[in-house]
Amino acid sequence: MPYFCVLKDTNQNLCSNDDNRITWFADKVVAKIAPPERFTFPFYYEPHPLTKIAAAELQHYLETQTGFDHNFGLTTDAEDSPIGKMFGVLVVRDTEGKLGYLSAFSGKLADSNDHPKFVPPVFDMLVENSFFLKEQEVISAINGELENIEADENYHRRKQELEQLTARSVQEIADFKQQLKINKAARKARREVNSPDDPDHALIEADLAKQSHYDRHRLRVIKEECKGRIEEVQTILEPIDARFEALKNERKERSGALQVQLFEQYAFLNIAGKTKSLNDIFAPTAFGRPPSGAGECATPKLLHYAFASGYQPLAMAEFWWGASPNSDIRKHKQYYPACAGKCKPILAHMLEGMHVDENPFLLPSEESAQLEIVYEDDWLLVVNKPAGLRSVPGVDIVDSMYSRLKYTLGNIEPLLVHRLDMGTSGLLVVAKTPEIHKHIQKQFLDRTVSKRYTALLSKPIAQEEGEISLPLCADPYNRPRQLVSFETGKKSITRWKVIERTGTITKVHFWPLTGRTHQLRMHSAHELGLNAPIVGDDLYGTAAKRLYLHAAQLSFIHPKTRERVSFEVGEGF
């Protein structure tokens, strides 16, 4: 595989013979382990033995280093909030065939980008007198002025006075209008008894008209008086509010311009020596522009440094070090794929022209060969979906339960009422007509469908049963992963019960009372849930032969017979 050395004006070590960013493997290690023939597929992989050695050495360094102070949350005596971090290693070969590895971290470490053992960022925004820091100072000054306005007691007092005046004016006008209705009704009643034959008829009519004119005049006066009182306060507040809005708009414009300028500095190399900025990389994506933090992940940093320094990338791996974020699920020392939202577009450019492992999601699964139809009649069918088969076709994957049923059913369009994750096996209901589909789907929406899952958990569970309530939402930058969010998450509730314990494995039944994406997987793995990932969960736990989650039981009202039907299939594990 060709590789090269690029000489350009950056803040990196280029083609240096004494590169202190690389750690060379011992000869005895290299002699025993053959390097990979293809580069790692970054979004689903089993770490190569050389990357495991590199990761173990880096983890030992993190345990023993004294060069920086960062609270990873591994001890309880730190005063600041713990921040776990994703680290990456990249096995490389130099121009003489020598093997070593590079190390990187995602984001900043101990509030700095510069640490001797780790490759630098593609662009260091924190260097002294950088345009980023200078503009940040301006934005910080704007923030300071905004905070001063918001903290001004006189401003708040005037704001409160304006609210009270407005509310009082609205009520005063409403009350007077109500009185006008009463006055009008009284005039009407008097007119009804005012006979034209009465000698005072004309005088009475004139008096009633005068009263009507007076009421309308008083309403105008009250409105003008209310308006005047409000405008008096508004005159004082207007210049302050105008300044406040102008500062907010200036901050927004400066922040946006800074983001564009910043992302233009992040120019990533690939093996052909071609560079692309983050703005160019993300322009054709659904985002349209780079998300916050793009370009700061470990693997893009590692590859860029390797290309710029003349090293040939051979294999990568990323692992989490430290405490898990409250919203996400990250396990200390566990390997993880590169993130999809921020890294996938970047790595598509960086890996262009390289021999990369096949995407396992595009390969046919042996376990997905058979499709068992548990029940079928003229209106619906119930299918036992095997693990490893998608419910519906994906962007790059045509094979699915839907496509197989469409072939089997011929002229009948299979209408899936619900779905299961690719790794989850078990019962799925498929309607044969839109009417049946709508009827059963409503039962799911009304939560009258009974569902029971069986799962193997990767840890012992002390309790016998319980209920988990953790609100979930999608991770916008790392789909299909989910997050726990008590602010924006949707209500998610699961009942569970232990069925069997075998060594470190716990077999449980799950009853999802809501139907959120990855609900059972998240409720199992999250520390506020069972804190025990499902065996084989490659997103929230550790990959295995399969995801040991099975939709075992399903019960609903048949749309035609109006009788409850129940189905159950064994999980086979």
Structure description:
- The protein is α+β, with helices and mostly antiparallel strands and 573 residues long.
- It has three domains: 22-123 and 266-361, no CATH class; 148-262; 364-568, Pseudouridine synthase (2-Layer Sandwich).
- It is 36% helix and 19% strand.
- It contains eleven helices and 19 strands.
- It has helices spanning 27-32, 49-64, 131-151, 153-193, 201-265, 278-282, 298-309, 340-350, 401-409, 434-445, 519-525; strands spanning 22-24, 85-93, 99-105, 267-269, 275-277, 312-321, 335-336, 372-376, 380-385, 415-416, 425-431, 450-457, 465-469, 472-474, 482-484, 493-502, 505-512, 549-557, 564-568.
- The strands form four sheets. Strands 8, 9, 10, 11, 12, 13, 16, 17, 18 and 19 form a ten-stranded mixed sheet that branches. A five-stranded antiparallel sheet has the order 1-3-2-6-7, sandwiched between helices.
- A hairpin with a 7-residue loop joins β14 (472-474) and β15 (482-484).
- The longest helix is centred in the middle third of the chain and has 65 residues, at 201-265.
- The two termini are 44 Å apart.
Query: What is the fold named in CATH at topology level of the largest domain?
Result: Pseudouridine synthase
Largest sheet: 10 strands, mixed
Task: Say which CATH homologous superfamily of the largest domain is assigned.
Answer: Pseudouridine synthase
Q: Helical stretch count?
A: 11
Radius of gyration: 34 Å
Shape: extended
Category by helix and strand content: alpha+beta
Give the total of beta strands.
Answer: 19
Low-confidence stretches: 1-17
Q: What is the strand content?
A: 15-25%
Q: Indicate the CATH class of the largest domain.
A: Alpha Beta
N-to-C CA distance:
44 Å
Q: What's the helix-strand series?
A: EHHEEHHHEEHHEEHEEHEEHEEEEEEHEE
Number of domains: 3
What's the architecture of the largest domain in CATH terms?
2-Layer Sandwich
Mean pLDDT: 91
Percent helix among the residues? 25-40%
